[in-house]
Specification:
Blueprint lengths: L3 H39 L1 E2 L8 E2 L96 E3 L7 H5 L7 E3 L2 E3 L11 H9 L11 E5 L5 H6 L5 E6 L7 H7 L4 E3 L14 E7 L11 H9 E10 L5 H4 L7 H17 L3 E6 L2 E5 L5 H10 L51 H4 L8 H21 L1 H4 L5 E4 L6 H5 L6 E7 L7 H6 L4 E4 L12 E7 L1 H5 L5 H11 E12 H13 L4 E5 L8 E7 L6 H11 L2
Parallel strand pairs: 6-7, 6-9, 7-8, 9-10, 13-14, 13-16, 14-15, 16-17
Antiparallel strand pairs: 1-2, 3-5, 4-5, 10-12, 11-12, 17-19, 18-19
The structure holds S-adenosylmethionine.
């Protein structure tokens, strides 16, 4: 027994070895056959090196080595069906160069002018949607880079003269040769925005990090927001598309955060308690009209303790009524009624110096509730979500602040100052306003986005070289992408889809970042060619069932600057399809692994249109430009 056991063991061991060798042999054969058949898929073709030169490094993140072939190796549904149109999208006619689908100056004529209803978003639906690519204006050039762009823009890019003439005395913008020059004038500050902002800084703590997010209603060419960049303050400059021709387009061309918008009947597309300061310099809004609706909307979006700065009529009417060609008694009445409404909203007037008046929103509503009968305050809004603001009608009521335990507490909590605010756990997370998002999630999300942004920087050289300025994040989540970009000289429009599972826009504002709600089945409230980089994380899988993804691509192309870039992150199946759409809208794109490497199903479609286009594509754009 003692001898037979090792023998038996040896026999079975030999069998196992033979079996292993056979398996290894068969596997190797199968591997090499597979390798031979799929060599194009497995290796990365470097378009910048000698043709057919293969690079076996799958994980490198250098752009030339990340062009992968993901075609047809997945599920059957990925293969375009026979009726799937792969033709490149045609260009729109030349008169579409400044087409804004939801702010179309022709379409707006169908809508009433009362209460500026015609200037609200009215988006085309179904067959009304334009399915062509917006051509650039003739002579279009690479925009002036930031920070020079704050003061100069190419006239060819925004070829509109009206403001250079109608606002000449107020120094909004001048035309000098082929450049538009922005000397920093405005209706309320013809002799320069610097002195004007310095005056405000004597009343409002602009230099301390207390004020970071500002809303400028009726922004003109956004010179106010431009000046505030010197204080590290981010201003959302808002104005409609009206007789102040292309004002918002000028602002964006200057590299300033701006969006088309109007105080009309809908809430502004921001959550409650978003802005540290709101400002109107002669913005022509009837603040006391419509039962005080508009001042109540400002109250909704101001954070507790936020500042409201008003200049222009009726402020300082005693000195200015002649210049404004108004009757002093009318202006006096107007001011009295603003003062009265502000009091009834429980705001405190903190100063009126020369042309500028400043009020402050209370830090909580304890007093306001107690005194509401004596003050004859408007009613507090009934329980509706104060952060809902996508096509939501305004109501003449005071948006209640979160409850506090004592008079000295700030409703919702005390915000830390900028820049600490950016990475401090937001109060809405601490107070558990957002389902299932913890402080740990927030910190992990920040770390994740740092890694992702560093990967993006290694792929898109213009990002790491600081050449991008206006950035759009189509699905901003907690704002981690924008926060990780803060090392670059950029600003980010953080978009939270109106039907996102979690409404995180309040968190984004608490971090001291800007953003808006949006439904990506519609067009964004901006002009064509206004963003250098668009980031679309998970947006395609989110909208796939909701609307035609081709329309989403056409819209992205509309807002993207001609030499801009796009980063689309999604599941490999979606990315494979996205590549087909990217080709149809004539982008220079390639599929890449994410920073998680080749074995993770999340992939990235990078688009970099600063890459030279081939002759056919250049011709087709030029053809449109000259016809
Ligand atoms: C006389 S300009 C003043 C521009 C700038 N604030 C300045 O001081 O130079 C009036 C501005 O208010 C905007 N505006 C007029 N009605 C508005 C409304 N209902 N909502 C938002 N902006 C409005 C105009 O489009 C324009 O930008």
């Amino acid at each position: 027994m003692a001898r037979t056991l090792p023998f038996l063991f040896l026999t079975s061991h030999r069998g196992a070895i033979s079996c292993l060798l056979l398996t290894t042999f068969l596997c190797s054969i199968s591997y090499f056959i597979g390798f031979y058949q799929n060599s194009k898929i497995i290796f990365i073709a470097d378009p910048y090196s000698t043709p057919n030169c293969l690079h076996p490094n799958l994980t490198t993140s250098q752009r030339p080595s990340v062009i992968l072939d993901f075609e047809s190796h997945h599920t059957a549904s990925l293969t375009p069906s026979s009726n799937f149109d792969l033709k490149p999208i045609e260009f729109c006619p030349e008169n579409f160069t400044d087409y804004c689908p939801c702010q179309d100056t022709v379409r707006e004529r169908q809508f009433e002018m009362s209460q500026m209803l015609h200037r609200e978003r009215h988006c085309p639906e179904g067959d009304e949607k334009v399915r062509c690519l917006i051509p650039r204006p003739e002579g279009y050039r690479t925009p002036v880079p930031w920070p020079k762009s704050r003061d100069f823009a190419w006239f060819a890019n925004v070829p509109y003269k009206r403001l250079t003439e109608s606002k000449k005395k107020q120094n909004w913008v001048r035309l000098q040769g082929d450049l538009l020059v922005f000397p920093g004038g405005g209706t309320s500050f013809p002799s320069g925005v610097k002195g004007y902002v310095d005056q405000i800084a004597q009343i409002v703590p602009l230099r301390t990090g207390d004020v970071r997010t500002v809303l400028d209603i009726g922004c003109g060419v956004a010179s106010f927001g431009a000046q505030l960049t010197n204080f590290n303050i981010l201003t959302m400059s808002v104005a409609p598309r009206d007789i102040h021709e292309a004002q918002v387009q000028f602002a964006l061309e200057r590299g300033l955060p701006a969006i088309l918008g109007v105080l009309s009947t809908y809430r502004l597309p921001y959550p409650s308690r978003s802005f540290d300061m709101a400002h109107c310099s002669r913005c022509l809004v009837q603040w006391t009209g419509y039962d005080g609706l508009y001042l109540m909307e400002i109250d909704r979006v101001l954070r507790p303790g936020g500042y409201w700065v008003l200049s222009g009529p009726p402020i300082d009417w005693r000195h200015n009524y002649k210049g404004w060609q108004r009757q002093p008694q009318d202006l006096e009445k107007e001011q009295a009624s603003i003062e009265d409404l502000a009091k009834r909203l429980c705001w405190k007037k903190i100063a009126e110096r020369g042309p500028i008046a400043v009020w402050r929103k209370p830090t909580n509503h304890v007093h306001c509730i107690k005194k509401s009968k004596i003050l004859q305050s408007p009613p507090f809004c009934a329980a509706n979500d104060p952060d809902t603001a996508w096509y939501k009608k305004m109501e003449a009521c005071i948006t209640p602040l979160p409850k506090v335990n004592d008079l000295n507490q700030v409703a919702g909590g005390d915000l830390v100052k900028w820049p600490k605010r950016l990475n401090t756990a937001p109060l809405r997370i601490m107070n558990r306003y957002i389902n299932g998002v913890s402080v740990t999630n927030f910190n992990q999300d920040n770390e994740l986005w740092k890694k992702r942004v560093s990967h993006y920087g290694s792929v898109l050289s213009s990002l790491s070289a600081g050449k991008y300025r206006n950035i759009m994040d189509m699905n901003a989540g907690l704002g981690g992408f924008a926060a990780a970009l803060s090392k670059y000289p950029v600003w980010v429009m953080n978009v939270v889809p109106s039907d996102a599972k979690n409404n995180t826009l309040g968190i984004i504002y608490e971090r001291g970042l800007l953003g808006t709600y949006m439904d990506w089945c519609e067009a964004f409230s901006t002009y064509p060619r206004t963003y250098d980089l668009i980031h679309a994380n998970g947006i395609l899988s989110m909208y796939m069932e909701k609307c035609d993804i081709l329309d989403v691509f056409i819209e992205m192309d509309r807002v993207l600057r001609p030499e801009g870039a796009v980063i689309i992150r999604d599941h490999v199946d979606v990315i494979t399809k996205a590549k087909l759409f990217a080709d149809r809208v004539r982008w220079q794109s390639w599929i890449s692994h994410s920073e998680l490497g080749p074995f993770h199903p999340e992939k990235i479609l990078f688009v970099d249109n600063s890459v030279k286009m081939n002759a056919n594509q250049v011709n087709s754009r030029q053809f449109i430009n000259h016809h």
